[in-house]
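Honest question from a wet-lab person: if I give you the sequences of every part of a complex, can you actually get the arrangement of the whole thing, not just the pieces? Trying it with mine:
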Amino acid sequence: MRASQRYFHRRVVNVIGLVASCAAMIFGLFFLGAILFTLLKNGLPALKMAVFTEMTPPPGSAGGLLNAIVGSLMMSGLATLIGTPIGILAGTYLAEFGSGSPLASTVRFINGILLSAPSVVIGFFIYTLVVIKMGHFSGFAGALALATIIIPVVVNSTENMLKLVPNTLREAAAALGAPQWKITWYVTYRAASAGIMTGILLAVARISGETAPLLFTALNNQFFSADLGRPLANLPVVIFQFAMSPYEDWQHLAWAGALLITFAVLILNIVARFILRRTSTSG
Amino acid sequence: MVKHSQSVSRSAIEATDETFFNGRLQLERTAKGQLLDRLFRGLTRFFAVFVLLILVAMIAALLAGSMPSIRRFGFHFFVDASWNPVTNQFGALVPIVGTVVTSLIALLIAVPVSFGIAIFLTELSPRSLRGPLGTAIELLAAIPSIIYGMWGLFVFAPFFAAHIQPWVIEHLGSWPLVGFLFQGAPMGIGVFTAAFILAIMVIPFVTAVMRDVFEIVPPLLKESAYGLGSTTWEVASSIVLPYTRVGVMGGVILGLGRALGETMAVTFVIGNAHELSSSLFMPGNTISSSLANEFTEAVGELYTSSLVELGLVLFVITFVVLALAKVLILRMRRRAGVQA
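Yes, you can. This is the full assembly:
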């Protein structure tokens, strides 16, 4: 009798635990759904052609987000151009040349911390380094801040992807007399190209929504400008200012911008996963 | 993979063919190869060191920027609750307390939920659903912080103020001991709302680490437990969790590091008041939200410098927390490596 009671008790605890973990799963999925639903509900009606063809308006009049979209693309593009090569080369050192050395383990450790370092502090850093020296906010400073965020992401993914390349490939190339740089350049990089590409895409996705570092570096610009030496309009900061404003026109534009950014980021993420999955299953 | 190795071996064969027929060329090539090798290796090492330099430069720049404030306020900065740009009196107590409180409450919510999700994904879910459901949770981490902020301000806060807060204030507000936490007007925004949004943002990070470490539990251990008649929950709580304790701790602390530095979402919903209040429903402040709100408007050397010192404090706190998380996760991985 006692034994069956204990068994019943264990069964009950089991069911409660499992129901709770299902509930946790639903809790997580619910918020993803709720956020996407809100974005679609508020963003879609605001997403008109004008969003892509007109400048950010003064309060109370219609307009679009063209200057902010262009500014964001320019800064993200420049940040990727600066950050990616640095990240790939540093990651190459960690995976190919220094893997066991004290320098490599220090870099790996510090890089892991930079990977999660608060982006607001990175914005501060570029502010004191660049903005104060130049005397004013600029798109260039914004791009540097974003590049600082990209580097640790790319270092991390490059190292991991290069480590997945089987050593036999390297040995085969070495046996044919290829120097080490050729092995890395023509063999390892090629074998790991999909993975490295995935890392870059994820890094771009990471910076496209970053707001805090841009507040102190690129700031904003109400007019169209493609000049990286001046304050540059960008989507995240425009969304921040417009969403916090009391003007309805501005808030609508903020939702349209939020929808654009989120779906861009989600699509980048899904494409990156797709590339990785396709290559890892075919190989 | 096959395609890659074919093209590689073809070019390598062509190269060896040429060098085979021309000995002198080969010698020159070897020398050139060695030089390029040294160059390439040096270049990669340079950029590896560059990553270290970023960190050093960050600390140096923040220290230099906060010197005026450090000189003026000294240690008093950390215990002073006043923040007055008019009289130039600045103290970091309110934002530091706000940062710690919001992050800890966020963890209180996020850790059990993440544990549930990780158990669901590793033990319960049908194999075909694991991929899509896992990806969905990971996508939570991809949504930009500012979107969480807008959603929190325009959707969650009004709902919370209209449907949940009044009930909680009425029923829990009068409880002894904990009642003071739930007093005040139902405004929607405030410390608790910020912590709740933070919790949702942290869940994917904690879940990812938990999933990773749960998967390295040797199947033999779990099967033995099942063989002795354990229920699924008993395996999860008495086998998987104890075995992965160190790694789970690392994941929790990583989540803490994330929550501490989160900026935009908190800025939207915390209310930005430089006051210490006992109630979780009152507006407050965190280090990062003060920075985002005030920095572009700060005038005067001391004001700016105090904000930079806040940034430095935040960086030091997150650095220590993240370093601890890394050490714990590394130790877990190493143990798994040894046993595998």
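Two things worth pointing out. The first helix of chain A runs from residue 2 to 46. The radius of gyration of chain A is 24 Å.
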